[in-house]
Amino acid sequence: MKRSHWLYLLILLSIPFVVWAKLQVLPTFDDWNTLSQHYEGGFRYVFYRHDSFWRPFDELFKYFYSYHYQWFPVFSHLCILIGHLFNTILVFLLCRKLQFSELSQAVATAFFYFSPAVLATLWACDSMNQVYSQFWGLAALLAYLSYQGRRQCLAWMLCCLIATLTKENGIAWFFIAPAIAFVFGHIDVQRLRKHLFWAAVAIVIYLAVRFTIPMVGDYDDEYFSLDAPKVIKQLAMLFGFSWLAVDFVYLLHEPSRNLLFVLLTAVLSVPFIVVLFKDVSRWKQKGFLTLAASALVVVLPNILTNLSVMNVYASLGMFALLVAYNIHHISNVKWLKITFAGYLLAAIFIDTHLWFTSWQTSLAGKKMAQQTISDSKHPARKVFTITVEDDVRKLSSFCVSPCDAFGWGIAVMYETGMQWPKELRDSTVSYDTSAADIEKIAHRALNDGYDAVWIVKKKHVEVLEK
User: Fold this and answer.
1) For residue 49, what is the enclosing H or E element?
2) Cα separation of 346 and 125, whole Å?
3) Predicted confidence band at 387 (pLDDT cuts at 50, 70, 90)?
């Protein structure tokens, strides 16, 4: 432990800086949906399906914010960061439980904590479901490996159920825990079959309840489109974002493109991955295959529907255990230590840069909201927003357009203490829509009874009032 204590110390020393940095990031795009739910039907609506999702814990936070909006987004930021720290601790404890070497434990823990794959989750405001679904999943695995008999089953199933109610891909942990326990010699084949049977029963009961409870809103099948090229692309995204500490903002975001920094981060980080996986014979081992398969299974719903950079977080815990497994079986660790130092340097650089872009891109929403309030002659109760699409491509939550930071006008609701507007309706038009056509839409909205129309274009909001 003494030889690798500096990695744990580095994590501890980084926490105050990460807390400060995270609290600077303001809500953008999907973050604002947390404040858009008013729960006019009361507390019982927390436990209903919303659109096509059943995530009671998500809705509980929204219900809380509907009465305590001033806690947003600080409370979300702190919950997400605490969850990530807990997940880091669970990765460490699982490495110990699986009896990986001390070096394996330290490197896997640091890999999970500092990996650029966590950033879309860590710097966001609406990613608690990502963090805590993994937390309860990892807790389910640790409980399964730690206990025996009824205590084992009860703790495992309860944690899996909470993980699933937090986010749907948590359901995978019903199968992952027994599979890993069997392969690493914690249970025999008879107990494996028995527990897989009970896991299937639990899943059937969950699905029966899920599709029986009432649904609020319309069924949303936007994400449910499946084709082979899309799946291949999303698998490439999963492995690329999970393993390569390459600055993908400098690579993928055209206005920010800087191939020199892309090359620099690649040179620093890729050798570690090469050292980690160069022994191809290890790929055939049951432990390797089980951990790799578990990482894929837990993120499978996203691969088959729509995988975003944020979703990559779901599989990172299993990938971290795969890192530990590989290091445990490497005899000559000299180059491993050197290359991991390079990986860590690249990861910390990327973590800092992507925080800066997330912070900068989020400031536009607040400025636009303040400008809208200043340009309004009187508080508007009912507002129609016309958002003119930005022709610049965004990248996850790191580089969003000012329109997305404005959040269809919800940023104004937040700035006014949720006093006005009380009703928002939005419409999005193409960036090449003529000014005359936009004006027609605006006047039609005013004639339909809206108090004001906000025309949102790039960083400016034009206010039209009756």
Assistant:
1) strand 49-50
2) 25
3) very high
